[in-house]
Recover the amino acids of this structure.
């Protein structure tokens, strides 16, 4: 006899799910707006707005902890409680939908006392000394304690840790002694990223946030994206800190320490120095890096351009095999592979699609391999003495540079992946105020870059770069003839999944660099290139599930995937906090920087051209490139042993 | 299982005198709006403890457009001292199912669920048999009672040992396969309930009384009890009394009158409403059991003169510490602090200042907790402090407690 | 070819989805049945259930750990739950608790070395008028005394032996 409950629903727990109160399509319609009074201020808000949203609209500040603009509401911390006249109990402002005219008071005595009690209770369990905490000065609990005048531990304060910090992962560290059970990490990992590493375990005052069967993070399906770190209000979650090791290398006169910097950290580093989000400090940072002792400063955009050539060539070869040689075994669509979080996500959840991943390494890792070979040769350095550091917006890069196969130079190709936050710390330790420094250029031989390398930092950037190059190499036209200013708008933006079709209007001659690989471009004449872009692994999942059932995306030729919402600019190593507005501001900085470059297509990068002439002499996807610039992957599956 | 027509102490239960399916038949002859009006006229209020007007709840759900709708029988009876639902489900399950069917007709529900607490697993197959028998008799399933298009069926879903799942939104979370963590309200289940659809959650006893109302009339029901608390109520009586059991009394009975019936007149205190209720001292035994005075889901625990009230408070707080779902700060951490406070008081190691802090914390918990558990867990403790201060406070320290005291 | 434990478990879980549905709302009934059959819910079982219901293993762990009757760790064939809430407490649950511990040779939240009995506290189980009360799996025993406790345990052992012999 069936015991089924009829109907099913979306997976996210409703207590954490935004309870959508339907809003009127037309704000002018009757009932679409509701009059409310907040602290005596009268205003009208859209039906279904939360009290928190209404308060924000009239400049009334209500504290929050579990609430986060990127995540569905929780209503669990209770610090945002307010009085709604007529109700005996206080209401959580973040979760209470306004459907009728209510009067709200946000600082009655009961509210103030309740807020203090919430803080007192959290502090009675929160073990951690602010002085030694990674979030000292940027901690939401600390800020509220100060704001609400906490001057004693009314309900006590732990004097010893209860749990050991989980330091198993290369990227994400977990100190649950500082956890305030806000559930942001749970909502981030399950709802936002659909990876599913954390959940609440046990109940009552024994409730703790943990992994499957409390296994170390290294042993579960964590993809190292660090989105949980970016949203944790305290120092419970943080990225592995390797600044001591980097200082040691810098301080060692025998070591030649070089650093490559990626575009996304450059658009966000200013935030760590109090600048508005979206104020780039790229060239000031070059000065700063030399000042603290890096021997050379390189631009990752160089290898971003190289990635375009390698990956673009790989795509062309796949297309040739599929369309001309009619080889049905060719894996299409081709997926980008520069996001190590995305790569690990695919390795865990869709390992059967590994053949679709581009074999090209990420720009970081390509650079690592080149620095300890080509660069070392050029400068007559012993690669054993080179310490190769990468400044990345990414926490997963720490995992990536430690992948066993990343030793193609004969040494560990990239020694350390530093996050934006770690480098900000190093600058501050050295008393360097980045924004006030003079600008300076990157070092040669890899100094020159293009705008197309810069836009890698935003979702859609890799796709746009690839298209700019491929379109020009195949059609012989300038991209500016097809898209104004070479801005390929259809692949830009923050929508989770984007799709575009580009028809090849005409074909030109095969450029020299590819002459050995394809005889002509006739086979692409009139072809429609179908591409897609997804950012955030929840959107990656949508696309992958669609491909699995032979949906629209299975007919694409090329898909860009980024693990982090917003692309790299929203990476797990970027300054905290993160919001949609901040990410949009960083994107504006990145696209502005692109516009400022005179060269905006990867194949026109003179350093790239020189590299193929001098070093990667058998051309893109040739033997030498394959050895240094390509890699393979590991089918991990999602089973946890 | 034999059907008891009298309560466990030999008193006649109204339920025993209700002929089967008369109420359902009467309801099916009415329009759906009239069904709801009848319940409203009876002024029936929820019997699980919250006392929400049943007619109003059914009306809200009936007005919603979402589909399918659900009617859920809350058989998670977990409030300490409550066992009347067990007796109703054992002896009068048909009344409950009949009530669910009437409710389904009223609100337009296609599906019903009985959320049966895990501790009552031994009732599961009994209830499934009763349900099957009703299906066989055309009282569940398609075109019930000959009413074309009135399709309604019921399944039994089991709880798994969590008191918090007696809270209606936690119950719904549990049915959906999640932790029993209450939801943010509003919106309420009548608007956004099981699977996001309009759902009515009613207590076992409420549904049984609904059936009686249709069998004997709303006026009959409204004439019993008090103005704001109509009808009879089943009380679960236990503790230091000679005649524990299930009793039926009209609302408005005083504590003293009840104690006389159960032979517990020498009680020092009565805990009314379970662990989440009030501790009522002798001086207040003249008060009435009614929504106007002392509301209750019917749990009456009689506490004899020899008992240590601080130990009583401890028993309840230990219960809440164990049963708190853990999602919201005031309840998750507050109950543990109150329990710790009771232990400090027992050792004579609680300063006056800290006691005030704990009382204040109790006040905050009552208004800032996310659900009824945290909102009511401090009440017993606070009322014991208020009425039994001489017993609870001023204990001499038994151990030198410099670290432990606050 | 012999059916492995995992195969058997998967077959059982799939059969349960026939009854309870193949989505999240089936999770708790499935966990209950698996716990009953296997006396515990281990890593393989959790991952299998997660896979079948298309949810994350940590979510299965989270739900199981929340409910008192779904604790995933391996427990005894008979789980004895003694009520400790007020009415049973007033009616003498302490003496019964002592008797249980002595009879079984274990404390609360422990399992006998032979894996037969687990002893736990329970919260009010609705037998307040006939306490002290305890559950042994799904069966309830009321008006307990130390003597009755010994009888119940003996009964359990006898029926277990009969089962084993059968």
């Amino acid at each position: 006899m069936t015991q089924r409950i009829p109907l099913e629903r979306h997976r996210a727990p409703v207590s954490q799910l935004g309870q959508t109160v339907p809003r009127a399509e037309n704000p002018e319609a009757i009932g679409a707006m509701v009059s409310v009074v907040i602290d005596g201020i009268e205003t009208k808000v859209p039906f279904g707005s939360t009290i928190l949203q209404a308060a924000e609209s009239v400049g009334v500040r209500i504290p929050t902890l579990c609430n986060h603009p990127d995540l569905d509401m929780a209503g669990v911390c209770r610090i945002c409680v307010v009085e709604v006249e007529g109700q005996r109990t206080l209401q959580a402002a973040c979760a209470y939908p306004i459907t009728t005219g209510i009067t709200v008071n946000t600082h009655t005595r009961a509210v103030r006392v309740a807020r203090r009690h919430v803080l007192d209770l959290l502090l009675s369990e929160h073990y951690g000394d602010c002085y030694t905490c990674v979030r000292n000065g940027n901690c939401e609990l600390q800020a509220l304690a100060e704001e609400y005048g906490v001057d004693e531990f009314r309900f006590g304060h732990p004097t010893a840790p209860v749990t050991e910090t989980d330091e198993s992962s290369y990227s994400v560290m977990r100190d649950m002694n500082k956890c305030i059970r806000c559930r942001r990490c749970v909502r981030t990992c399950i709802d936002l990223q659909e990876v599913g590493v954390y959940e609440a375990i046990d109940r009552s005052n024994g409730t703790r946030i943990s992994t499957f069967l409390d296994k170390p993070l290294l042993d579960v399906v964590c993809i190292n994206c660090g989105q949980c770190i970016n949203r944790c209000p305290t120092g419970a979650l943080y990225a592995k800190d390797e600044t001591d090791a980097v200082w040691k290398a810098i301080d060692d006169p025998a070591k030649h320490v070089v650093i490559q910097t990626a575009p996304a950290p450059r658009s966000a580093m200013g935030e760590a120095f109090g600048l508005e989000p979206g104020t780039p400090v790229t060239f000031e940072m070059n000065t700063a890096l030399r000042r603290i002792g890096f021997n050379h400063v390189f631009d990752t955009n160089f290898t971003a351009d190289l990635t375009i050539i390698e990956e673009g060539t790989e795509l062309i070869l796949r297309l040739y095999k599929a369309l001309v040689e009619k080889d049905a075994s060719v894996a299409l669509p081709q997926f980008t592979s520069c996001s190590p979080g995305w790569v690990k996500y695919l390795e865990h959840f869709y390992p059967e699609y590994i053949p679709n991943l581009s074999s090209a390494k990420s720009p970081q890792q390509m650079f690592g391999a080149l620095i300890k070979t080509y660069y070392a040769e050029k400068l007559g350095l012993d690669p054993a003495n080179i310490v190769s550091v990468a400044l990345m917006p990414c926490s997963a890069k720490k995992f990536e540079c430690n992948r066993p196969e990343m030793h193609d130079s004969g040494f560990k190709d990239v020694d350390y992946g530093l996050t934006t936050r770690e480098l900000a710390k190093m600058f501050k330790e050295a008393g360097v105020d980045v924004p006030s420094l003079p600008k300076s250029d990157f070092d040669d031989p890899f100094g020159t870059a293009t705008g197309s390398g810069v836009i890698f930092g935003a979702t859609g950037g890799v796709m746009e770069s690839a298209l700019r190059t491929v379109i020009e190499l195949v059609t012989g036209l300038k991209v500016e003839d097809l898209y104004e200013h070479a801005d390929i708008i259809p692949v830009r933006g923050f929508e989770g999944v984007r799709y575009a079709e580009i028809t090849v209007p005409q074909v030109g001659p095969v450029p020299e660099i590819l002459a050995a690989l394809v005889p002509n471009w006739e086979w692409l004449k009139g072809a429609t290139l179908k591409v897609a872009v997804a950012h955030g692994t929840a959107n990656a999942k949508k696309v992958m599930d669609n491909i699995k059932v032979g949906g629209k995306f299975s007919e694409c030729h090329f898909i860009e995937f980024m693990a982090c919402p917003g692309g790299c600019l929203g990476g797990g190593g970027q300054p905290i906090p993160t919001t949609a507005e901040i990410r949009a501001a960083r994107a504006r900085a990145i696209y502005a920087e692109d516009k400022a470059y005179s060269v905006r297509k990867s194949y026109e990068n003179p350093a790239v051209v020189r590299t193929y002439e001098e070093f990667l002499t058998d051309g893109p996807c040739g033997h030498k490139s394959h050895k240094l610039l390509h890699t393979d992957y590991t089918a991990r599956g999602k089973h946890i042993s | 299982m034999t059907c008891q027509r009298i309560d466990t102490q030999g008193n006649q239960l109204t339920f025993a005198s209700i002929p089967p399916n008369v109420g359902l038949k009467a309801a099916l002859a009415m329009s759906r709006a009239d069904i709801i009006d009848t319940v409203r006229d009876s002024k029936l209020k929820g019997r699980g403890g919250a006392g929400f007007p049943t007619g109003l709840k059914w009306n809200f759900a009936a007005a919603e457009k979402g589909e399918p709708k659900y009617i859920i029988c809350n058989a998670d009876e977990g409030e300490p001292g409550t066992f009347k639902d067990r007796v109703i489900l054992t002896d009068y399950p048909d009344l409950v199912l009949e009530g669910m069917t009437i409710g389904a007709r009223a609100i337009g529900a296609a599906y019903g669920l009985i959320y049966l607490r895990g501790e009552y697993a031994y009732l599961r197959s009994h209830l499934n048999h009763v349900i099957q028998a009703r299906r066989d008799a055309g009282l569940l399933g398609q075109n019930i009672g000959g009413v074309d298009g009135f399709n309604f069926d019921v399944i039994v879903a089991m709880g798994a040992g969590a008191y918090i799942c007696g809270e209606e939104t936690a119950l719904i979370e549990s049915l959906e396969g999640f932790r029993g963590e209450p939801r943010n309200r509003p919106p309420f289940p009548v608007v956004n309930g099981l699977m996001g659809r309009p759902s009515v959650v009613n207590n076992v006893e409420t549904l049984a009384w609904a059936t009686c109302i249709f069998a004997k009339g709303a006026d009959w029901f409204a004439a019993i009890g008090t103005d704001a608390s109509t009808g009879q109520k089943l009380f679960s009586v236990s503790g230091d009394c000679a005649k524990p059991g299930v009793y039926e009394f009209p609302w408005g009975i005083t504590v003293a009158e009840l104690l006389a019936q159960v032979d517990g007149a020498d009680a020092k205190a009565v805990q009314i409403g379970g662990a989440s209720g009030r501790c009522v001292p002798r001086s207040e035994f003249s008060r009435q059991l009614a929504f106007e005075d002392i509301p209750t889901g019917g749990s009456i625990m009689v506490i004899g003169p020899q008992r240590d009230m601080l130990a009583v408070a401890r028993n309840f707080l230990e219960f809440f510490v164990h049963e708190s779902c853990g999602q919201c700060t005031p309840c998750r951490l507050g109950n543990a602090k109150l329990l710790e406070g009771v232990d400090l008081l027992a050792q004579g190691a609680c300063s006056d200042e800290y006691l005030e802090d704990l009382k204040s914390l109790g006040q905050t918990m009552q208004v800032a907790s996310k659900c009824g558990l945290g909102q009511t867990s401090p009440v017993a403790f606070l009322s014991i402090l208020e009425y039994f201060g001489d017993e609870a406070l001023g204990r001499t320290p038994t151990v030198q407690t410099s670290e432990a005291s606050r | 070819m012999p059916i492995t434990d995992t195969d058997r478990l998967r077959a059982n879980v799939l059969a349960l989805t026939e009854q309870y549905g193949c989505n999240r709302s089936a999770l708790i009934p499935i966990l209950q049945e698996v716990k009953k059959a296997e006396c515990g819910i281990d890593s393989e079982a959790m991952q299998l259930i997660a896979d079948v219901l298309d949810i994350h293993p940590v979510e299965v762990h989270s739900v199981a750990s929340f409910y008192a009757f779904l604790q995933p760790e391996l427990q005894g064939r008979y789980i004895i739950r003694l009520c400790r809430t007020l009415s049973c407490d007033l009616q003498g649950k302490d003496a019964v608790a002592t008797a249980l511990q002595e009879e079984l040779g274990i404390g609360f939240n422990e399992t006998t070395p032979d894996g037969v009995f687990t002893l736990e506290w329970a919260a009010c189980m609705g037998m307040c008028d006939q306490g002290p009360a305890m559950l042994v799996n799904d069966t309830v025993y009321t008006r307990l005394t130390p003597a009755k406790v010994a009888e119940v345990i003996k009964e359990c052992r006898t029926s277990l032996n009969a089962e084993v012999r059968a």
